[in-house]
Amino acid sequence: MTGPNPFSIALSPSKLRSKPKDSTPQTVARSDEIAEKHGFVERAPKKRRGRKPSPRTGQVHAKVMPNVAREISHEASARGVQQGVLIEEAWALYKASRKS
Amino acid sequence: MPTIVVASPKGGAGKSTTAVLLGTELANGGVSVTMLDCDPNGSLTLWAERGELPDGITVLSDISEADIVRTIKAHDSDGKVVVVDLEGVASRLVSRAISQADLVLTPMRATTLDATIGARALQLIAEEEEALDRTIPHAVVFTMTKAIQSKQHKGIAVSLKEQGVDVIDPPLMERAAFSGIFAFGGDLHSMPPQGNMQGARDNARAFAMQVYKRLTGEI
After folding, report:
1. Of A95, B114, B146, B182, which has the highest C-beta tally within 10 A?
2. Domain that includes residue B62, residue range
3. What is the pLDDT at residue B15?
4. Interface predicted TM-score (ipTM) of this complex, two decimals
């Protein structure tokens, strides 16, 4: 450490003055340009747009009577789920009924 | 409010420790301090959550590349200090923070590797000064130093000074209290004793005083 007493000066917040700094988009762009030259690149994680992909990637090709199609469609809409959810539930019930 | 940016693209150089010690010592001296945690690892946030924040300190977390300029500007007023803690990588966030700095501190351990990688921040500052047409005061602070300086430490310090780099004296020494502050939160005055507490307090206070003098133009 230098000096006989490093604590001899009391902190005086009023002496702390901010200097004007340019924060316009042009300045930021200039700063980015220099940064890239020195290998300081964009590292912010990219946000994905839109809804997340559904995990339901399996597909069945079921042709049903028009009234059944309408009822399934209405039920899915009313519950706010995919039609595949209803098929999964129906399949679970079918498997359960075969076990009993 | 003067903005102090703690920057080095080298990880493990002591950036967060420097930021916490500086922020808490300035706050202890009666200065209002806003600390910006720009490191995705959230070191400052972890410290802030560990214990009661000392009076006069506010910590803002998750500051991103898109937010940094706006956030610094929003807290820019006289009589207070903003301390920006950055991740140890070469990112655009670092350069944006430097563009808004009143003082850039580059912590480095006294090793050739730290000095070589830390020097990249100094080169970036020099170019930003030219492009933005303003002086950006900057200084190096050695961290985790031993009581007896190695030849490597002395050689690096001489080399930096010969190139006109401002090296802060005292360095931040390797102390149990400096690493312990992240375990207990708070500051060196509130945490349970870890090693030589008085030595740690004197060291941190003298370092903060040197930074303060640079902010007020006394150095």
Report:
1. B114
2. 3-216
3. 96
4. 0.80
